[in-house]
Amino acid sequence: MIPDTTDDLAAVLTDFAEWPGAGGWVWSDADRERTRRFIEGVGALRHRIAAGTPLDAASQSAFLEAGTALADWQRRLVEERTRLGDRLRQLDEEIKRTREELDRLHRRQVTYPIEVERLKALLEERLAGRSPVIIFCERMEVRDEEWRNAIEGYLNTRRFDLLVAPEVFGEALRLYEREKKARGIEGVGLVDTEKERRYLGTARRGSLAEELETHDPLVQAHIDHLLGQVMKADDEAALRAHRTAVTRTGMVYHNFVARQLRKKTYEEPFIGEKAIPRQIERRKEALIRLRADREGLRAASAEVEWWEKRLSEKVEKFRWMKEHLTIAETIGELRTHLAEAEGERAVLLSSDLYKELERLEADYRGWRKEEQKLKEENAEWTKKASELKVLRDHAEADVRTAKEALEQATAVVSEWLSAYGAYVDTARERLKEAWGEEAPSPFQAPEPSPASARRPETATPALQETLARKIDNWENNRRGNLTRSVQAFQELVRQRTEYNLTYGFVAPADAPDNAAFDRLFEQLEQVDLPAYREKAEAARRQSEEEFKASFVFQLREALQAAKSEFEELNYALRHFPFSDDRYAFEVKAHPRMKAFYDAVMDPFLLERDEVPSLFAPSEDERAQVLAGLFERLVRGEEGDLETFTNYQNYLDFDLVISNSAGSYRFSKYLREKSGGETQTPFYIAILASFYHLYRSRKTLRLVVFDEAFNKMDEARIEASLKLIKQLELQLIAVAPDEKMQHMFPHMTTTLVVSRVGYRSFVDPLFYVPAGEAAGDDRGEVDADE
């Protein structure tokens, strides 16, 4: 088995070294060198084991070092698979969002920044039709498409300025000021159209304002204000002739400073109806690119997952081989003992003692056959004795019955003779006269006649009454027996008919005897039933074996899945330090269940050709452990079934906490640490449980906490919330006011609940990072001012 295993490991590592990589996996020269040493170490191990020579220190060191590398590669593949999975989910979200935007564009609906849409909706609601609310870029068109990029980039966020009628601007500004924080609408431009009217018609000839056209005077005034002094330049040399100018390529000159517009400011067009086809084309190109990226990532993820599973199997085998590195020495010792035993056996075979032993064995076999023959004869005579005993018991019962009947008859005759003895001779003479020579004996049973005719008139009243009662009882019994006999035969006919219909047997149901059915019973009992029993027993054994094997495979898969999930959790935890602490789950076999765990996880159990099944009688220790496990499942004590079918009972979990002072296990220091230090592992364990519970990803992935993070500092709260996002869990948390400032920046929605007297109020809060706020009022150029 060991040589085959080492060959398998070497072949897998050779293939792995030739794999070009996928996703973020890149081979380094150091990795390839380690792979080469691993293959050499495995080859040396195989040759030494095959030769029966022990491993030297150098070979053992190389083998162990390469094995560590194997485990490290498997761990890196798990991390890469997790990273690719995260990126695939991000791509799916991007594709979904792009498709939604494309659908809206086909309906002529442009997607603007969310703050712009919120403020526009607020003003339309509160102004109630007294003024239209105009998005600047919607009410104008670009005359010459060659100048579109320059105009789009120069205006930048000013393209989304909102315009209202001059008479309602003051009211709109008050609404903006009052609702800006609650609604998260900072950074949106609201144009003072009342004061900006004076810029209408002030654009210089040759300015960028000439490349925009509109029929709305409010929009034209805003165009003249922003672009009326920005001159068009044919090339970069012409820029210096103006204070503020721009070229078609987006080179801006302002206050003696030249600066190229950033591409991201104009690559997404928004101005006019002509911008929609360009946005549609960009979304289509983005969809093609995103789908190609997704397919590439899926292929890479499949490759990484395939290699991760393959290396995972080899890691298990390496661990087993690591425990048996001394097997070469053991093989050498066993070969020496085998040679010595073979020599002793040869001496014994050539001695007279061995010949005498063979003779005794032959005699022993002969006597064993004779013993078996005598046992069979004894069983036959025992059977016959039992049958004779039954016959004897029946005969004795018949004799006892006859004796009782004789005694009763003798008593009746004696009583009759005592009463009528004087008339016997006279009655005999008269009987001969009446019957002649054929007269019956006085003691012969007469033909049945009515009870009154059988009562001698001269008999005593007591005798007459006794005889009449016995005769009546006999008549009643005879009629009852006859009725029961008829009913029993009718039931027999019904059952015969039912059997014929059910099993398709052809035999007369009303036959007076049971000969046809007796012959069928004998055939079934002696011919068919033994064959059926043998087939049923074979099917039972096969079903039992399949169940056992299925139980072992499912249990192994559950254990491997649990270990893989905790590896993914540990990968996520490595990116989220909690103050000076780092956390990692440790999963190992439970001490009480270790023997069963090792047997179930044994990677070689299914590769043993000499064992016909997992549970067949074998001298292998782990096969015996599995047989014992199944015995506990079938015939164990109460509670054993639940204990041994739950994979969690086979594992021992702990949380290892590492920091600059060292590392320790949470289970040993639970009562020695402060509140925040003990609450952080508690939340990590709870989140790990939810992550395991929601592993199907087909649920809401909801997590609800009350009094959340009440003993944790700001750094630990922030790390916990980032971990929740990394695990893609949806959090609903109830927290006191003092924790809100730490949680608020990381929450999508924050609701503040307050109470005044007997009334409660709920106020929404919105958080917008400073980096997302819009720029100044004059676009790209004003950013430098």
What can you tell me about this protein's structure?
By secondary structure, the protein is an alpha+beta fold. The protein has 22 helices and 15 strands. It has helices at residues 2-18, 29-51, 57-106, 114-127, 148-155, 169-183, 193-196, 217-227, 275-323, 327-349, 352-420, 424-435, 451-454, 461-503, 515-573, 594-601, 621-635, 640-645, 675-693, 714-726, 737-743, 779-782, and strands at 134-135, 141-142, 162-163, 212-213, 231-233, 244-247, 251-254, 257-260, 582-589, 651-659, 662-665, 702-706, 730-734, 750-756, 759-765. α2 (29-51) packs across α3 (57-106) and α3 (57-106) packs antiparallel against α9.
Topology:
Layout lengths: L1 H17 L10 H23 L5 H50 L7 H14 L6 E2 L5 E2 L5 H8 L6 E2 L5 H15 L9 H4 L15 E2 L3 H11 L3 E3 L10 E4 L3 E4 L2 E4 L14 H49 L3 H23 L2 H69 L3 H12 L15 H4 L6 H43 L11 H59 L8 E8 L4 H8 L19 H15 L4 H6 L5 E9 L2 E4 L9 H19 L8 E5 L7 H13 L3 E5 L2 H7 L6 E7 L2 E7 L13 H4 L3
Helix pairs in contact: 1-2, 1-9, 2-3, 2-10, 3-9, 3-15, 4-6, 16-17
Calculate the terminal CA-CA distance, rounded to whole Å: 79 Å
Give the oligomeric state of the chains in this entry, treating copies of one chain as homo and distinct chains as hetero.
Answer: single chain
The parts where pLDDT drops under 50 for at least 5 residues are 443-459, 608-612, 771-785
Question: What is the number of strand segments?
Answer: 15
Strand order of the largest sheet: 5-6-7-8
Radius of gyration based on Cα positions: 51 Å
Contiguous helical run count: 22
What is the structural class?
A: alpha+beta
Task: Kindly estimate the percentage of residues that lie in beta strands according to DSSP.
Answer: 5-15%
Q: How helical, in percent, are the residues?
A: 55-70%
Shape: elongated
Summed over residues and divided by their number, the pLDDT gives a mean of 79
Described by strand count, sense and barrel closure, the largest sheet is: 4 strands, mixed
